[in-house]
Design the sequence.
């Protein structure tokens, strides 16, 4: 399989935190989960792959192109990053303007910018709100607009930082539907989550980080049988059992 | 998130008859004409003309006046400051423990003149802005050659200030829920100190994240801001502006003399 991203022996140190000997691959069309407890280095790994941070050692390849200062913009055109909080991402006055920001920076003619914005808003089903101010939307709507802003740049790889946090079920469903359609379009996805449901039902493979090191990188079904990986995802079953025991009021008894 | 600092007509779509640049240039023109008037009656005449014109254009007066009302303190400050600063004819003296403070007639007249000028400008510009969206306003500023770097900063400031106001309000609510008493003035000032500190701290963190988000979408080679194009209808605005200039220069003084004699 061709690699969309290849991380080779990357080392990075920042204050007390260190990432050591990170190796991973994201293949074309693959949807991969990046898991780990808070502070395990998930966001740092994202930033390293986006060129926002520079590794102390090691190499990162995006579509066989080595990531470096000289080709940052060329490489970034291929990657879209959805922030956990859409307020960090949306800054233009209206939805339309915000989605148009990326295509305009690509230097596209205004007619093509318009076409891309229309397509992206249609893809996330937000066409009706095109002229709404970005500060007058719900969290779920803002998330979809943020995704449209990325899709308008036609990326080949998507990084999603906890895409379902703070969303109600209909909105989760709507985002999940968008992501499934991205799979049909052949876009590779690397996403972080603490939710076992999404790992089991969405991820083709999984990479688990622990204290800045790769603990596991492989298919999801194998990861879910690994006790150490489960510890990073969270042992939800034992928590469920403990909570059930502590329950005072239970009308089934 | 209902906070918005300016009266932009968001969601209403593009302007039809006039361009945002045309409206802004005309408003600046009227503002300059108002600023050079030396008689209160002349300024009031211009204000009346502005109100009539804006009413014909179906200005949302409720929005405009509620925003203009926020400038009340600033306007009153000048009206009450000037009489203590300048003049010859003493109207009254305020006795202070260490000296007496004269209140001059000429200063009062000048203060009132400044106050009326400011009020006219505030109403004029808020009314003009209420007919365009924020994007159209930014486009209009670009048309009058305001540098892109300033516009980019302005755009981001107008987006994030309401967000910080919202954050401050949530923090205040959180403090109240944990029993914080805003009863005394001292408590309010103390709480404001905490709030401003943490808002600045959060603003700093967020500015880094926003910059990263913008960089990832190609920011860094300069922001792309579309200028607003002038429309044929703008010609009418410029003709009216020219007529106002002629009227105030040649006819207004004579008219006022006839009316007030």
Sequence:
């Amino acid at each position: 399989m061709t690699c969309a991203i290849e991380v080779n022996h990357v080392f990075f140190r920042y204050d007390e935190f260190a990432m050591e000997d990170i190796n991973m691959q994201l293949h074309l069309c693959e949807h991969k989960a990046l898991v780990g407890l808070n502070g395990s280095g998930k966001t740092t790994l994202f930033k390293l792959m986006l060129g926002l941070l520079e590794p102390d050692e090691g190499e990162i390849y995006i579509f066989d192109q080595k990531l470096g200062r000289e080709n940052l913009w060329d490489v970034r055109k291929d990657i879209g990053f959805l922030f956990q909080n859409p307020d960090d991402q949306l800054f233009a006055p209206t939805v339309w303007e915000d989605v148009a920001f990326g295509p305009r920076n690509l230097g596209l003619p205004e007619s093509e910018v318009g076409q891309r914005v229309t397509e992206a808003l249609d893809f996330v089903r937000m066409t009706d709100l095109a002229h709404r101010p970005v500060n007058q939307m719900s969290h779920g709507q803002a998330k979809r607009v943020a995704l449209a802003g990325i899709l308008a740049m036609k990326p080949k790889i998507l990084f999603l930082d906890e895409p379902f946090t703070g969303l109600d079920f209909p909105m989760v469903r709507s985002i999940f539907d968008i992501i499934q359609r991205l799979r049909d379009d052949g876009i590779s996805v690397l996403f972080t989550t603490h939710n076992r449901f999404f790992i089991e039902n969405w991820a083709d493979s999984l990479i688990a980080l622990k204290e800045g090191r790769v603990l596991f990188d492989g298919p999801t079904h194998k990861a879910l049988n690994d006790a150490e990986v489960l510890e990073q995802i969270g042992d939800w079953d034992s928590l469920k059992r403990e909570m059930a025991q502590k329950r005072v009021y239970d009308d089934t008894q | 998130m209902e906070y918005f600092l300016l009266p932009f007509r968001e969601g209403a779509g593009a302007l039809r008859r006039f361009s945002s640049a045309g409206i802004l240039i005309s408003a600046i023109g009227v503002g300059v004409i108002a600023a050079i008037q030396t008689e209160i009656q002349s300024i009031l005449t211009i204000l009346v003309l502005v109100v009539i014109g804006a009413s014909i254009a179906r200005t949302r007066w409720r929005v405009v006046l509620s925003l203009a009302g926020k400038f009340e303190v600033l306007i009153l400050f000048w009206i009450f400051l000037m009489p203590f600063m300048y003049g010859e004819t003493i109207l009254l003296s305020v006795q202070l423990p260490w000296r007496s403070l004269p209140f001059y007639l000429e200063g009062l007249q000048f203060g009132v003149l400044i106050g009326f000028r400011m009020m006219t400008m505030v109403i004029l510009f808020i009314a003009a802005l209420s007919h365009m969206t924020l994007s159209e306003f930014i486009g209009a500023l670009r048309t009058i050659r305001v540098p892109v770097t300033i516009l980019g900063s302005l755009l981001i400031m107008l987006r994030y200030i309401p967000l910080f106001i919202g954050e401050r309000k949530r923090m205040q609510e959180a403090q109240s829920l944990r029993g914080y008493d805003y009863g005394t003035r001292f408590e309010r000032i103390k709480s404001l100190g905490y709030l401003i500190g943490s808002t600045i701290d959060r603003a700093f963190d967020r500015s880094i994240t926003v910059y990263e988000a913008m960089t990832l979408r190609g920011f860094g080679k300069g922001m792309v801001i579309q200028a607003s194009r002038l429309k044929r209808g703008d010609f009418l605005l410029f003709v009216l502006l020219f007529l106002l200039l002629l009227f105030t220069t040649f006819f207004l003084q004579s008219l006022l003399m006839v009316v007030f004699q």
